[in-house]
Design brief:
This protein is α/β, with parallel strands linked by helices. The protein contains eleven helices and 30 strands. α3 crosses α6 and α6 packs across α7. The two termini are 42 Å apart.
Length: 477
């Protein structure tokens, strides 16, 4: 491999985890949350790769999150990003294989750097220096993992044991064994054996990875290749073919390739890295007050210590307690022990069984035309505030199970109702009966804000039949 090839970042942004619920929801998982300095983890990951050693990143994104990804990248200056859409989640082997095929087409022999979009790395300069150093070494046929030197016996990470063989005078070591997430005693023993945390960051050539997938997982390779070959451009996205993609088994790159290949290596790093999988992890890396509390939003504390307190709107008051985690959003409140914040999976399972919308929907949901905010919801009605950006419009659509009443509170609306088109200004309103074709447009230069009152028997976002849409959503969400 030529040493002057730039590195191509492949950023995995398709996760939909809820480990940071209620901040994180299925419709807006943690990679899209503005946790640090009003920037999302996706944006921070992307900005980390703005350096002369990198090509433009490639993004692998879930179908339902494509517009929020495009908008967040636009806000940091990426006007025409490479965004590949997965028809459905199939874990990292399928995503990385698709990204490798795409990278091979556009960047030929460039090394491919795999980066999760939802991790935190404090020292960007050290990250860039490390990636440049390793990419300039002889990595031909090597599949390299980046291992993190542990600072304590963490049980929520996987571990990597190496054979202590170095090459090219760098700390590239042959992998001896992968260890799944251990219990506490095993984690302590692994640290004594100089095991590393598995960061989920990898470096290899696209050809090397594709050769390994073709050898170890021929069915995955065949169907990803078919899905990629039959991909179609959709606005600024590359949409993988769903027919072939649905046939792909869901398996991580660790299990499918790295645990089987003879060409897996690890680089030991001391990057200040955190996968931000729990509120305890957020507390650990955040700035604290004199009582060791992390506080965000409108919060008043009285004799509180060692706690994480978050409010995104209303006042939260906490008194005479310690080691607590309180997260208050507009529609949900979580209270748990900060030391056991990694154990909320059972709570998530309860929410799933009860089919609670709070697990899926965020109060604010982004769309290509703007966004809407859920104000109130129950079995008889749902109230939203819609913000339509200048020059944007919703799809021409109808609903089978609900009626809608629109009231303009700011801006000027152009309304289509069946075959009629008319203007609504501030304080104007209109009623949209069930099964009526309708469309909302903003032809003005200022945002249009609408209060939408839905009544009927069902208010899910899937009760939409689209007849025309400038964003290509006729057959897609």
């Amino acid at each position: 491999m030529k040493k002057n090839k730039l590195i191509t970042p492949l950023i995995l942004a398709g996760g939909s985890g809820t480990r940071l619920w209620p901040l994180s929801r299925k419709n807006k998982p943690k990679q899209f949350l503005e946790i640090f300095d009003s920037l999302s983890l996706l944006q921070l990951t992307t900005l980390r790769c703005r350096n002369t050693i990198f090509n433009d990143p490639i993004f692998i994104v879930g179908e339902q999150h494509r517009f929020i990804v495009a908008e967040q990248l636009r806000l940091i200056g990426l006007k025409k990003p490479h965004i590949i859409l997965e028809p459905e989640p199939k874990n990292t082997t399928a995503a990385i294989t698709a990204g490798a095929l795409y990278s091979k087409n556009i960047n030929k022999l460039a090394p491919l750097l795999i980066l999760p979009s939802d991790h935190h790395i404090e020292n960007t300069k050290q990250f860039i220096k490390l990636m440049g150093k390793i990419s300039r070494s002889n990595i031909e046929k090597k599949l390299i993992c980046f291992g993190i030197q542990p600072t304590f016996p963490e049980i929520k990470y996987g571990y990597i044991l190496s054979e202590n063989i170095t090459t090219d005078n760098l700390t590239i070591q042959k992998i001896k064994k992968f260890e799944e997430k251990p219990n506490f005693m095993k984690a302590k023993n692994l640290i004594k054996r100089n095991a590393l945390w598995n960061s989920g960051m990898f470096l290899f050539s696209a050809n090397s990875l594709l050769d390994e997938v073709q050898f170890h997982c021929p069915l995955i390779y065949k169907n990803v290749k078919l899905s990629f070959d039959n991909a179609k451009p959709d606005m600024d996205f590359i949409r993988l073919d769903s027919k072939s993609f649905k046939k792909i088994p869901s398996i991580s790159i660790d299990h499918a390739i790295f645990e089987k290949t003879k060409n897996s290596f690890v680089v030991s790093t001391n990057l200040k890295w955190n996968d931000l999988g729990t509120y305890n992890a957020l507390w650990d890396i955040s700035k604290k007050d004199n009582n060791n509390n992390v506080v965000n939003g409108d919060v008043i504390l009285d004799n509180v210590k060692n706690s994480y307190i978050y409010s995104d709107k209303n006042l939260v008051s906490v008194s005479n307690i310690e080691d607590v985690n309180v997260v208050a959003t507009q529609d949900a409140i979580l209270v748990t022990s900060i030391k056991k914040s990694n154990e909320i999976k059972s709570l998530i399972n309860i929410l799933e069984k009860k089919k609670r919308n709070e697990l899926t929907e965020h109060v604010i949901t982004h769309r290509p035309w703007g966004y809407f905010e859920n104000i109130s919801s129950n079995k008889t009605h749902k109230i939203k505030k819609l913000t339509v950006m200048p020059g944007k419009k919703l799809s021409l659509q109808s609903h089978n199970k609900r009626s809608e009443h629109w009231v303009v509170i700011a801006g000027t609306a152009t309304v289509t109702k069946n075959d009629k088109e008319f203007i609504l200004k501030k304080n104007g309103s209109t009623f949209i009966p069930v099964k009526t074709k309708h469309r909302l447009s903003n032809k003005s230069r200022i945002p249009l804000i609408i209060i939408e009152v839905q009544t009927g028997q069902y208010f899910g976002e899937d009760d939409i039949k689209r007849f025309d849409d400038i964003y290509g959503r006729i057959n897609n969400s």
